[in-house]
Write a structure and sequence with these properties.
Strand content of chain A: under 5%
Number of domains of chain A: 2
Radius of gyration of chain A: 29 Å
Distance between the termini of chain B: 21 Å
Structural class of chain A: mainly alpha
Main location (chain A): membrane
Keywords (chain A): Cell membrane, Membrane, Transmembrane, Transmembrane helix, Transport
Number of strands of chain A: 0
Shape of chain B: flat
Pfam families (chain A): BPD_transp_1 (PF00528)
Family (chain A): Belongs to the binding-protein-dependent transport system permease family.
Largest sheet of chain B: 2 strands, antiparallel
Mean pLDDT of chain A: 80
Mean pLDDT of chain B: 79
Low-confidence stretches of chain B: 1-23
Oligomer: heterodimer
CATH architecture of the largest domain in chain A: Orthogonal Bundle
CATH topology of one domain in chain B: MetI-like fold
Number of helices of chain B: 16
Largest sheet of chain A: none
CATH class of the largest domain in chain A: Mainly Alpha
Order of helices and strands of chain A: HHHHHHHHHHHHHHHH
Order of helices and strands of chain B: HHEEHHHHHHHHHHHHHH
Radius of gyration of chain B: 28 Å
Strand content of chain B: under 5%
Shape of chain A: flat
Helix content of chain A: over 70%
Number of helices of chain A: 16
CATH superfamily of the largest domain in chain A: MetI-like
CATH topology of the largest domain in chain A: MetI-like fold
CATH superfamily of one domain in chain B: MetI-like
CATH class of one domain in chain B: Mainly Alpha
Membrane topology (chain A): Multi-pass membrane protein
Largest interface: A-B, 92 and 100 residues
Chain lengths: 334, 326
């Protein structure tokens, strides 16, 4: 009874308030406009949306500024680079830098090498990490928690600690200067950030319903059948995320190749260092080695950097949706 | 994290026990023994599948992680020389470690400088990614496109390309020069803090590029907070400002911890990490060699582990208070 009275009074007050505000704003129409601009709650009106978009645009520009710098520098001639008046847009578009970089990187060959490493390793990582992650999430055996703990520890060990012994092992096996130094670890679930991928798969398989497994078991499916026929197809999105991430990370990897690979088999990242020597022989371009702003080598170097990141960029453009949605859905975050 | 396997073993033990003593199970002792054996066989068949699935990882771990790590630890207590016949070890005890602190005047300075930089970089990355993900979590047209932009740097955060960009000064935020922030920093704080601050500022954008994955993790974290809670507090009259501090932020504490850990691990392989360069340079110096370089790497590792432990502890404490309230 008392509650009813209260509710009625509150309703009355609200309607009076509404009326009042209606008077202040003049008419219903103004009220509608106001609602559209400010929204019912501050953060869903148009004003808020525009502010958010503006903020993001500014931050996004700052964020991508080095990329714009790269592209603009790559297309400038030396005189444009020296000229302080020319900031972003070059006076004449100069494609010479790109063709120099193409030759300097020995692009087709280095591209093929990098692609081989990235493709084979990512496929291997998907297979080995899925198997390990499945075992950790779904199969029972003594020492499982220990294994999981060790995997997390592997994630934390800096590569520099294991580098020397690995170098010695690979040297003994005669794998140095061959892509095997990347294939083998990937096959045995120890590839680049393999621990992270195992955790992703484990997290994913943990979220699958137990009933599924039991049903398959009752129907007489063996563990292997269960894994390959039911679990792996379900994990398609996790597989895709792991594949894409390891592809990109293998593509960009620099430290390991610089340790294990010599002259015969060079990926793009190492070719960038050798570009100067490569070009010095057959063109008039005179590079002043490495440091500081140097208008002559700047153009070709930026062009080379662009050529290196272009392939993963294209991959990203095509798969962008899965990248961003994938991580959210794989349950990396629990 | 998961105690499943422990439970299963225990329950198996209990059922075994009951089978042994129950009068209903009947039969002679021979029968019992057989049953027990069959049970073990069954269990081991079950375990065997698990070990079979783990086999690739176990081989890889033993050969490519455990053995190298052990060897590297052994190296760090030795003076290692490379002779035509292979490695020559000479036990020196903790001499390598002592030397790193007492004699090597570059290493400790680099370590401290990079550590200072890291302490600036981690909050910078965390705050930036939190802010951006907060904005990205709102509804507005073109959201997927903007998300794609902020995740883009993950694609080309390659060591070589980043170094090139940094050398050419493209990593600076443009307003740092415009407002003469460098001079401002130098005037207002002592040189001890100013140097790492300027070092961070000079590659600010590139550091922000390391927040791609963090942004995604935060966005995913926001999805875990149920919409209904916001509706409830809104009805109770909370402003968006209040609901952010009272609901969003506390719920995000575990994700902030997760991101802090991820950031620290990511900064291991940061291309501008002078510590790693120093370690690498020492590997090939005849005067110092592998043993000394290993000791340097282990010191660095120990410090990072300590940092991680602190972060995890803080997160745990912060999250624990919340859990108890629920």
């Amino acid at each position: 009874m008392k509650g009813d009275g209260l509710a009625a009074r509150a309703n009355e007050a609200i309607s009076r308030l509404k009326q009042d505000s209606g008077h202040v704003l003049g008419s219903r129409k103004a009220q509608q406009v106001r609602k559209m601009l400010v929204g019912q709650h501050v953060n869903d009106g148009w004003i808020a949306k525009i502010v958010i978009l503006l903020l993001l645009a500014v931050i996004g520009f700052l964020y991508l500024q080095p990329v714009f710098y790269m592209i603009s520098t790559m297309l400038k001639t030396v005189s444009d680079l020296i000229d302080p008046v020319v900031q972003w847009i070059p006076r004449t578009v100069n494609w010479q830098n790109l063709s120099d970089a193409w030759r300097g990187l020995r692009y087709p060959e280095a591209f093929a090498n990098t692609l081989t490493i990235a493709l084979v390793c990512s496929v291997a990582q998907v297979c080995s990490c899925a198997v390990t992650g499945y075992a950790l999430a779904r199969l029972k055996f003594p020492g499982r928690n220990l294994a999981f703990f060790l995997i997390i520890v592997t994630f934390l060990i800096p590569p520099q600690i294991t580098m020397i012994p690995l170098y010695a092992i690979y040297g003994k096996l005669g794998w140095l200067n061959t892509p095997l130094v990347f294939f083998i670890p990937a096959i045995f679930a120890q590839g680049l950030r393999g621990a992270l991928f195992i955790i992703i798969f484990r997290q994913f398989f943990l979220t699958q319903p137990k009933a599924l497994e039991e049903a398959a078991k009752i129907d007489g499916a063996s563990s292997f059948r269960l894994f390959f026929r039911i679990m792996l197809p379900l994990a398609r999105s996790a597989c895709l995320v792991v594949f894409l991430f390891s592809f990109i990370w293998y593509w960009n990897m620099y430290y390991e190749p610089s340790m294990f690979l010599g002259k015969d088999f060079l990926p793009l990242s190492l070719r960038l260092n050798l570009m100067q020597e490569e070009l010095m022989g057959n063109t008039a371009i005179n590079f002043n080695a490495g440091f500081g702003k140097d208008p002559i080598s700047e153009g070709p170097k930026m062009a080379a950097a662009f050529l290196i990141i272009m392939p993963p960029l294209i991959v990203y453009m095509i798969t962008q949706r899965w990248f961003t949605e994938g991580i959210e859905r794989t349950g990396l975050v629990e | 994290m998961n105690t499943d396997s422990g439970n299963v073993v225990k329950s198996g033990g209990i059922s075994m026990h009951s089978a042994e003593t129950s009068p209903l199970s009947g039969g002679s002792r021979m029968d019992d023994k057989q049953r027990r054996r069959r049970y073990f066989l069954y269990r081991w068949k079950d375990y065997g599948v698990g070990y079979l699935f783990m086999l690739p990882w176990m081989i890889g771990f033993a050969v490519l992680v455990a053995f190298p790590v052990g060897w590297s630890l052994f190296n760090s207590f030795n003076k290692v020389r490379i002779t035509p016949e292979g490695f020559k070890f000479e036990w020196v005890g903790i001499d390598n470690y002592r030397r790193a602190f007492v004699e090597d005047n570059i290493y400790s300075i680099q370590l401290i400088t990079y550590f200072q930089e890291m302490l600036l970089m981690i909050p910078l990355i965390l705050i930036f990614s939190f802010f951006v993900s907060l904005l990205l979590n709102q509804k507005f047209p073109g959201r997927t496109l903007v998300r794609a932009v902020f995740f883009l740097p993950v694609i080309f955060a390659t060591g070589q390309v980043l170094t090139e960009l940094f050398v050419q000064g493209a990593g600076k935020l443009p307003f740092i020069e415009q407002y003469n922030l460098e001079g401002l920093v130098r005037e207002n704080v002592g040189p001890r803090i100013a140097e790492p601050m300027l070092a961070v500022l000079s590659k600010a954008v590139i550091i922000l590029w390391y927040s791609g994955v963090q942004i995604l993790i935060f966005i995913a974290g926001f999805q875990t907070i149920p919409r209904t809670i916001y509706e409830a507090v809104r009805i109770d009259g909370a402003s968006p400002w209040e609901s952010f501090w009272k609901i969003t932020l506390p719920a995000m504490v575990p994700f902030i911890g997760l991101n802090a850990v991820f950031t620290i691990v990511d900064l291991f392989t940061f291309p501008f990490n002078p510590v790693m360069d120093h370690v690498r340079a020492n590997m090939f110096k005849p005067a110092t060699g592998y043993g000394y370089a290993s000791a340097l790497a282990w010191i660095y590792f120990a410090i990072i582990i300590a940092l991680l432990a602190i972060v995890l502890w803080i997160t745990y404490r912060a999250a624990k208070g919340r859990r108890e309230m629920r």
